[in-house]
Specification:
The chain is an alpha+beta fold. Helices cover about 20% and strands about 40% of the residues. The radius of gyration is 32 Å and the shape is globular.
Length: about 950
């Protein structure tokens, strides 16, 4: 290894900048916690510290992002299916009012403007060009309306609590000959220029103020100052939630929830973590740092935060320690580093997760992902409980890679889907630095991080280039692959063994590169679960053969400790014993587990289903669906029907194919089968070979998705009347369906085209849906459906279009009583085909149908609906029908009630047996309900 420190000193010499003047901002504000406003007077001295001549200056005004429903922040919420911001009251949103900007000295009003698509940025036109080294001074007055903290965690909370970040006007960073114009999209990546702050806050109520700036004067008003700050936070409260802890490194102000641990223990843990970060990264450049509960809740430690306290598998001390460590590291790095928080966010994430993993290794060696649960005999067979605590990071990354939803960790933060931004991308970044440390040496990587931390605080140049230069200077090995492949691409890594031969003293083996991605990978020799040798293999672009000493190993394993973010670990080992079982043994697991690369896992789960004819039916589901998606999936669910005292159930076998570099995002080849009762003592068997072709935009944040479905539905029904035609008992239908949709919280548009061909009939249809939530919180939904028979050789309405209830001859819908003509189960509504809610004497169309379904909300989840359309049967004139009523839209598509009012039948409310006219939508399938809560993450 080459000497590191001479190069470090060389860097200090080459990159030492000349002293430059600093932007400065003097703020005087009056806080009114009752009206939740700040009246601000601000003097900003802007220094042109670039080599460019400036004609305009850009100021960040991120609080304005809360002002309307059309800002980039509002659109981000809609994109992630969050309706709370759009439906909020006006006084719950924030913004900047009465902004006035004048030039100091002359007092002339500044010419300033905001762009329509970026209202949270203010551009100020300068009366004269600002040359390099010159400065100009603004005087600004404005009123800040503080938003509710329920949207982002920043804003006002219960009582007089306020937590403010990015709320005052601040100069945008100027880099590479232009201002960095980032709008607020709730990702904490404001690109402020380092500024000296002098902030005086007076309060109209009795509250205590805290800030991560240094407190110069206490009382009311209170004065805070700070030098070269990217930003600062302001916290107010009338309670005593904040605690201050001070040591020889810095002063920590925190209200992080402590799970009932005593103050002494808490102080010791904080002191331990502060010194750990100081020793491993460097000295915090400021005298004070805030670690708040709001900061943690914005970026929690996923896994720990999902468990209620009464079943937590970890001691309270450990929980607090991990929460504080994560939040402290995040704030430490964000406050200290001069890194573009959007373009180079992976540097923040990588450093944070790397040192979190190192902290666990040093302080809690052997701790498992599920804590003390791993020691309980009932759970010892689960890979989920036996996985090392740090092992969970690679699983979260792999979760997205197997779904084909992973993104380059070097991509700008605003382009990442939510799961990648908050979980998988962060963890992959930390794992990548850990991977590099294992390859070139832990000391080399950690000394490079320390050197980068020191250099980055003084050098105004690309953070990525600086880090790359320092890392490459620390090793003689080629690490271009680290930046080009691991950071900048989403190429997947997958190696496997080919032929293996052995002697008593040596072993010869071939390694196959399944994806063509060339990165170093370690091979281990293992004996009785102990490592007897480890070698790094490099440059394996094609199949490569190696020979090395055997050293008593009985097993060869690639990537044994999972250093490399590899796509598939199930093909990474090969036994060297004379007699070996080539296939992995079968392991039965109850409920759910992580993928175990050394076993073929079969999971078994009790199930409970219901329909009117089979009754409440218990069963057992056997499948191989672990948390990670797999290329081959089977699912078999035998169920006992108590009403018929027989077995029913369903099965599915599927092969998944991900396309990494195509809009044809993924394909699935599948065969499904089901056997249930559809009427008393009458059952159906359905067999469906099917191909799914899923299309998705290259921009994974887009909610625009398309699916082409090709299937052949084969149905056999029994116990039909002797007079029934053969085609009603046994039939086969080819079905081609194309689904196109773009869905957000505030709008949706989609359509489905459907073609069905069989011996007895052919039909085509189109279903178009539109939904819009307007700025006045009124919502309109519109559905248009049109279908026609291409040919129809049947005399029965079994295959006809349904006006208010489809016959569902393909058995696609979850009807609980599909054959019922009266009673509660006949009132179940599934919006398909005609989509009417009222029932008429002409419920079917055997020639063509066209309908429109409209809904409009009148108060929250109360809507009015109306349906109208034509039904055409053979040998009759088209019949026009309509209905209208009230819809209680409690949970869209999952729980709804429809109350008919007036229709072609007349005034329905006054007619007999009105309760039998009410229709309902109820979804009981837990897998469908899960989608309601997870869709915003993917």
């Amino acid at each position: 290894m080459k000497s590191y420190y001479p190069f470090f000193l060389l860097l200090l010499t080459l990159y030492a900048p000349a002293a430059t003047a600093q932007h400065s901002s003097v703020i005087s504000a009056v806080l009114d916690t009752e009206t939740r406003t700040l009246s601000v007077t601000q003097q900003l001295v802007y220094v042109n510290d670039s080599n460019d001549t400036l004609q305009t200056i850009v100021l960040n005004n991120w609080i304005e992002a809360y002002a309307s429903k059309d800002t980039p922040l509002a659109k981000r919420f809609s994109d992630e299916f969050i309706r709370s911001f759009h439906l909020a009251k006006n006084n719950e949103r924030g913004g900047t009012d009465n902004l006035e900007i004048h030039f100091s000295g002359t007092g002339a009003a500044a010419d300033w403007f905001t762009m329509n698509d970026q209202p949270d940025l203010v551009e100020v036109n300068l009366p004269n060009r600002l040359l390099p080294g010159e400065k100009t001074t603004f005087e600004m007055t404005y009123l800040i309306k503080v938003p509710s903290d329920k949207f982002t965690g920043y804003g006002y909370g219960p009582g007089k609590k306020l937590y403010l970040r990015n709320c005052f006007l601040s100069p945008a960073r100027f880099e590479n000959h232009h201002f960095v114009k980032y709008s607020n999209n709730n990702s904490d990546d404001m690109a402020n220029a380092p500024t000296d702050y002098d902030v005086t806050i007076a309060t109209l109520q009795d509250v205590k103020l805290f800030s991560d700036l240094d407190e110069q004067e206490s009382g009311n008003p209170v004065r805070f100052v700070g030098k070269k700050r990217n930003d600062f936070v302001l916290f107010s409260s009338d309670s005593h939630e904040m605690r201050t802890y001070k040591n020889d490194v810095t002063e920590v102000v925190t209200d992080l929830k402590d799970n009932n641990i005593d103050e002494i223990r808490k102080a010791l843990l904080i002191d331990k973590i502060v010194h750990y970060v100081d020793n491993n990264i460097g000295r915090y450049p400021y005298e004070k740092i805030m670690v708040t509960q709001a900061d943690y809740e914005r970026n929690p430690f996923y896994g720990l935060n999902q468990l209620p306290a009464f079943i937590s598998p970890f001691p309270n001390d450990f929980l607090y320690e991990v929460k504080f460590l994560k939040t402290y590291l995040n704030n430490f790095l964000k406050n200290s580093l001069r890194v573009d928080p959007r373009a180079d966010n992976w540097i923040y994430d990588g450093f944070q997760v790397y040192f979190m993993m190192k902290y666990i290794d040093e302080n809690y060696p052997g701790i498992k992902m599920m804590g003390h649960v791993s020691k309980l005999g009932l759970f010892k067979s689960y890979n989920l409980t036996q996985l090392d605590f740090n092992g969970q990071y690679s699983y979260f990354y792999m979760l997205m890679a197997r779904k084909n939803l992973d993104q380059p960790i070097g991509a700008p933060k605003n382009t990442l889907i939510k799961f990648n931004e908050q979980i998988a991308g962060k963890y992959r970044a930390g794992l990548s630095f850990r991977y590099l440390a294992d390859y070139i040496g832990k000391d080399n990587v950690e000394k490079s991080i320390t050197a980068f931390y020191c250099k980055n605080q003084t050098v105004n140049r690309s953070a990525r280039d600086t880090l790359e230069t320092i890392l490459k200077a620390a090793t003689d090995k080629d690490i271009d692959w680290f930046f080009k492949t691991i950071i900048d691409s989403r190429e997947i890594v997958d190696y496997k063994f080919g032929e293996v031969s052995k002697t008593k003293d040596s072993v010869t083996f071939t390694v196959k590169n399944k994806t063509g991605t060339t990165v170093p990978i370690p091979v281990y020799g293992v004996r009785n679960k102990e490592i007897v040798f480890k070698r790094w293999l490099e440059g394996i672009s094609t199949d490569s053969t190696f020979t090395m000493p055997r050293e008593s190993a009985t097993k060869l394993v690639l990537n044994y400790n999972n250093e490399v973010p590899e796509y598939n670990l199930r093909n990474n080992w090969r036994s060297l014993k004379d007699f070996r079982i080539s296939n992995r043994p079968i392991k039965f697991v109850f409920m759910k587990d992580l993928e175990d690369p050394y076993y073929n896992q079969i999971l078994y789960v009790p199930t409970l289903t219901y329909n009117l004819y089979d009754g409440l039916s218990p069963g057992f589901r056997f499948h191989n669906k672990t948390i990670l998606d797999k290329p081959f999936v089977f699912d078999v669910n035998p169920i006992y029907s108590p009403n018929n005292q027989s077995l029913v159930g369903n099965f599915s076998f599927a092969v998944n194919q991900n396309n990494r570099d195509s809009n044809l995002f993924g394909m699935r080849y599948q065969i499904n089968g089901s056997y249930f009762h559809y009427a008393p003592e009458s059952a159906y068997f359905k067999l469906t070979p099917i191909v799914f072709m899923k299309f998705r935009d290259p921009d994974l944040r887009s909610n625009h998705k398309q699916t082409l479905v090709l299937r052949n539905v084969i149905v056999k029904r029994n116990n039909l009347p002797d007079t029934a035609d053969d085609e009603l008992q046994n039939y086969s239908v080819f079905n081609a369906k194309f689904i196109d949709g773009n869905t957000e919280a505030t709008k949706h548009f989609g359509y489905t085209t459907d073609l069905q061909l069989s011996k007895s009939f052919g039909k085509a249809s189109v279903d178009m849906q539109f939904r819009k939530l307007f700025n006045d919180n009124r919502q309109i939904s519109l559905r248009l459906y049109a279908g026609t028979f291409l040919y129809n050789r049947t005399d029965d309405d079994y295959f006809s279009f349904g006006l208010d209830r489809p016959t569902d001859y393909l058995f696609d819908y979850d009807f609980y009583g599909r054959s019922e003509k009266s009673g509660l189960f006949s009132q179940q509504l599934i919006i398909a085909e005609g989509g009417f809610k009222s029932k008429f004497g002409t419920p079917f169309a055997n020639q063509w149908i066209t309908t429109a379904n409209v809904g409009f909300n009148i108060w929250n989840w109360v809507e009015v609906y109306g349906d109208a359309g034509f039904v055409k049967n053979r040998f009759t004139q088209p019949e026009f029908l309509y209905d209208s009523g009230i819809r209680l839209n409690l949970v869209t598509d999952y729980f709804e009630l429809y109350f008919p009012v007036y229709s072609s039948n007349g005034w329905e409310v006054g007619q007999p047996n009105y309760n039998e006219k009410i229709r309902f939508v109820v979804t009981l399938d837990p897998r469908l309900l899960v989608n309601l809560f997870t869709r915003k993450w993917f």
